[in-house]
Amino acid sequence: MATDILEHLVLHFLIGSERDALGHLYSAIIHFLENGLKIRSVPIALVADRSDPEKARQLYQIIQEKNISLAPVALKAIAHRVAITGDFDLALKIIEKVALLTGYTWKRGDGLAAKILRYSLKHPEGYHASTDILARLVDMGIKITITAYNALIGNAVDVGDFPTAFRVFEFLQEHGIEPDSVTYNVMLTACESCEEQSVVEDMLTKARACIERDRSDRLATNFLHCSLLYHQRFFSASQSSAKWIYARVLRQYLTYFPPYPLFDLGLLDKNDLPSDIVSIIDNGMKLDVDFQPVNIVLMAFLRANTDSDRLVQVYNAFQRNARSGGWLINLCAYDTTYNLFLMAFGFDSKAVGLCPEIVRHMTEPYPTDRIPEKRPRGTSEIFARPTVQTWSILLHVFAWQGHTAAANKVMDLMEQRGTQPDDVTWNILIKGYATANDEEGILEALDNMRKSGFAYDKFTMKAVGRMNNKEALFRVLKETAVSTE
User: Fold this and answer.
1) Mean pLDDT across the stretch 256-266?
2) pLDDT at site 433
3) What is residue 56's predicted lDDT score, i.e. its pLDDT?
4) Mean pLDDT of 5-10
């Protein structure tokens, strides 16, 4: 009777339950199993699939100790949760039991195989065990599909093993396995570190065809970003090239996304559009757009722009629209847009004085009931606040201009606002003092950096090396060597 009631609760009330309720159900299942009571596999699968991975491991340990037989549905759920911890060996042992129970005939086994491969990266030896994991999965009768290959490529990119990522992609091509939008998303990330122009061009061409086939807004976004980096890396850095790159990125954006965010920013005038732009808009895919593709176009524009008044005009359009609850409020959940403007203002001799204004805008409430459609995970903040990257950019602006006192005040202000400097922030400050040949300031900054728990790195030494006063430089290096012993 008790087990029937428990199974009824799991089957009818688990979906959408609070975490505390799930914990109680899990504890009850453990208690019943430890005391020899039988519970059917489906309730166990439902609870296991929603439990903490470590609890799933504990559940399997009890099942082993009590020699309890479970149906494949429960074993798969436990294997999935165990795999999340990175324990690929235990996850494989569990699904070996599934293979025996099913006579090595699988339904949707590729999805579980991909998860085991992907999560194996959490294990210290997981990446190097990828070939062995794949072989064991094949031995179990699991058909390896593009989903699992995507996990292999993703793991290679995550650890920086880009040659392996490209080799797996070539394997897919050679064996007639069709890459999907996930494949190209990962491969475009790999292309950001590729120095072979022809390889990047070929990948962009293939990704473009995949966008047209799958209409993936995420892939279109990554395509825009990779295309921007590609043109910046392989073409001249002159201002004329920056304007050409912006024009190209603009057209690529309009091929995939709707134009209204660019109208709101003032990057396009809807009443005065060139005929080719009108044609692109009319024939564009108009995929779902969020802040990311808009920021990519904005980045290209800011690099190409040389008109201070135009820079201020676009920023003001952004603020007016966002603060009135327009679509551009979607650019305000993350610090990216503000940081882009801050960098552009900071290196514009006429607009640099407005940099503190941008940071102030990030601390002001938005007088609107509308909130951004996408927000960062792990924070209760609805709108972006100045981050360590924001403060570092502002500090860099002042240090670059030789205003070390102002840069130091930025350090104090960011700490007052609850943001701790990172190693990049300290190195920027040290670089500013070194450029100004301020021996006392640089020694104090180095000491404070060390006291804050950051070790001197190659960027610190490079920053120190900017001192023109060689005698002072020698004294600083000597002091630095002593303090690191």
Assistant:
1) 97
2) 81
3) 85
4) 52
CA–CA dist 344, 301 (Å, integer): 10
What's the confidence (pLDDT) of residue 485?
Answer: 43
| CA separation for the pair 241, 234 (Å, rounded) | 11
In-domain check, residue 354: no
Inter-residue contact 449 to 456 (CB < 8 Å): yes
Helix (H) or strand (E) holding 449: helix 439-451
| Domain termination site, one of 52, 69, 104 | 104
CA distances 88 to 137, 139, 334, Å, are 11, 15, 35
Distance CA 222, CA 293 (A): 8
Q: Are 226 and 192 in contact (CB under 8 A)?
A: yes
Determine the 3-state secondary structure of 142 from DSSP: coil
**pLDDT at residue 458 is higher than 90:** no
The pLDDT assigned to 412 comes to: 85
Contact of 98 with 75, CB cutoff 8 Å: yes
Residue at 309 is within a domain: no
Q: Residue 449 domain-assigned? A: yes
Asked whether the whole model's pTM tops 0.90, one would answer no
* Distance, CA of 103 to CA of 97 (rounded, Å): 10
Q: What pLDDT does 317 receive?
A: 97
User: What single-letter amino acid sits at 16?
Assistant: G
Q: How many domains in the chain?
A: 2
* More confident of the two residues 126 and 465: 126
Compute the chain's Rg from CA coordinates.
28
pLDDT > 70 in the chain, percent: 89
Q: What pLDDT was estimated at residue 237?
A: 66
Instruction: Please say whether the beta carbons of 433 and 414 come within 8 A.
Output: no
Q: How far apart are CA 416 and CA 418, in angstroms?
A: 5
Residue 276, in any domain of the structure: no
Tell me the residue range of the domain where 65 lies. Answer: 1-104
Number of Cβ within 10 Å of residue 272's Cβ equals: 7
Last residue of a domain, one of 87, 104, 121: 104
